[in-house]
Amino acid sequence: MGRNENLSEQIARVLRASLVSGQMTPGITYSVPALAEQFGVSAMPVREAMLSLVQQGLMTSVRNKGFRVVELSPKELDDIMQLRLLLEVPATVSVAKDVPASIMKDLRRITREIAKHAKQGQLVEYIESDRRFHQTLVALAGNPRLEELIDDLRSRSRLTGLGALAAHGDLSASAKEHVAMLDAITDGDSARLRTLMERHIRHSRGIWAGLAE
């Protein structure tokens, strides 16, 4: 967990990844005491984390019971993917020609983390590393509002097919796409990077969501 985050922020980040990966699902009421026991912490930071997710529109409060995941329709998920294609792809391609060597080193390290999590079937960790990879690139555009918007869209995705991919050993193939993106950046091939990014994001409504592409 990040050193610059307080405990409730760390828990919220893990819960967001759990939500995206489908490990937290609509229709189930999640109680603060149960989650606090799971995290090995007191109830206070868990409640604060849940309330922050409610403010973000990711969870809803159930009076005297707990919290539930906000369910999104297929149309809403399709819209999220389209927005990511419109915003995240050009933002990434625009900075690809001038990625500092130190950032490339960090990105290569993150790709190794992604591959490790994919191989071990660690879905929450996979989601978090994937998020850091793309956030690192988008941050180079120097537009905090754009970065925040793209991160919000990613948090609203529902990648419920990741578990099945991991169980069959197919998640590693998706993990390798991050290496291919970095290779395209190293080669200065913007067209290839754009194609790879578009295919990668379309997985959110394809194999990552348990659907045909």
What are the SSEs and their pairings?
Layout: H1 7-21, H2 32-39, H3 43-55, E1 59-62, E2 66-69, H4 74-95, H5 101-120, H6 123-139, H7 144-155, H8 162-167, H9 171-187, H10 190-202
Antiparallel strand pairs: 1-2
Helix pairs in contact: 1-3, 1-6, 2-3, 4-7, 4-10, 5-6, 5-9, 6-7, 9-10
Question: How would you summarize this macromolecular structure in one to three sentences?
Answer:
The model has no long low-confidence stretch (mean pLDDT 93). Strands 1-2 form a two-stranded antiparallel ribbon. With 213 residues, the protein is mainly alpha-helical.
C-alpha end-to-end distance: 34 Å
Overall mean pLDDT score? 93
Named CATH architecture of the largest domain: Up-down Bundle
* Helix coverage percent: 55-70%
Query: Roughly how many Å is the radius of gyration?
Result: 17 Å
CATH class (first level) name of the largest domain: Mainly Alpha
How many structural domains does the protein architecture include? 2
Q: What is the fold named in CATH at topology level of the largest domain?
A: Four Helix Bundle (Hemerythrin (Met), subunit A)
Question: CATH homologous superfamily of the largest domain - what is it?
Answer: GntR ligand-binding domain-like
Helix segment tally? 10
| Outline type | globular
What strand line-up does the widest sheet have? 1-2
The class by helix and strand makeup works out as mainly alpha
Main beta sheet: 2 strands, antiparallel
**Poorly predicted parts:** none
What share of the residues does DSSP label as strand, in percent?
Answer: under 5%
Order of helices and strands: HHHEEHHHHHHH
Number of strands: 2
